[in-house]
Amino acid sequence: MEQIKCLVLGSGPAGYTAAIYTQRAGIPTVICEGLQPGGQLTTTTLVENFPGFPDGIDANDLMERMRKQAENYGAKIWSKIAVKTDLSAAPYHIIFDDGTEVTAETLIIATGANAKYLGLPDETKYKGMGVSACATCDGFFYRKKTVAVVGGGDTACEEATYLASLAEKVYMIVRKPYLRASQIMQDRVVNHPKIEILFETNTTGLYGENGVEGGHLVYRQGQEDERKYDLPFDGFFLAIGHKPNSDIFKPWIKTDETGYILTEGKTPRTGIPGVFAAGDVADPTYRQAVIAAASGSMAGIEVEKFLSDK
Ligand code: NDP
Question: What is the pLDDT of residues 25-47, one digit of tens each?
Fold first, then answer.
């Protein structure tokens, strides 16, 4: 069974940055790309808020550069998905989807979190053409336009408020007759002149020629007074929650109730010696590429410290 000094699971900004740090510290590192090589960022198009790129940068290009940087320092990249772990004792045991097994002296969990979607075929059809799960990333493209935000939790309220600072009009599409968000967030959207909340409303599809031009909505779906109608908007933002990719670590690692890995204070330490978590899998709040990259560097530094203290 192959023995790895440092194994990084995940190939988003956190994973690549961690590997850049560990390799530069002379620690042989393997990055396991996982389900989505390049991570969540590759589901968007232009990244305008990653510092260092005054004109923005294509998301795939940015991730390709990070990958190359990690490889230039000697990191090995595997196209595998970890399916099972045993973190009961070091070296840690990892099993991959192709049946291979390795042990790792140190492990950086950078498996990310996936935004939840409604599951409509139109979400895939219009991805990058009006459908987004990140207002901070894509809101800029909707200046003075009309957008819809799906969800009634804190994230939806926060995204709606943010979008209202840019867009002309924001609809919130909420399936229940009430919001689930905290009172303070509710007050912000309810009293906002640009935000209109459509309660008891579901989206069944989207329409548009070369991008989203609106949605097919249903008020009180399945009830006697059900009403179907089309609502024009330019952008469709999902804010119905995220799912951190932490299931395979759960027997060993503490998570919150949603599944975000709990780390010690401001460090990426998980409580298991030599096992660190970086990026969105441990970040329910910010979920930004630059923050993921920063936490990846912290994890890399921690690995170096851990191995030299041994
Ligand atoms: P939540 O799970 O709190 O809310 C999800 C929302 O999406 C709910 O309104 C839910 O509706 C709706 N929803 C879920 N699935 C569907 C679906 N298939 N169709 C339509 N609507 C759907 O997730 P959040 O991301 O908002 O928040 C996650 C956690 O992070 C919470 O604990 C929140 O408090 C916290 N948070 C805090 C912030 C802050 O304090 N500033 C900011 C952002 C998040 P329903 O109610 O019907 O289930």
Answer: 999 999 999 988 998 888 777 78
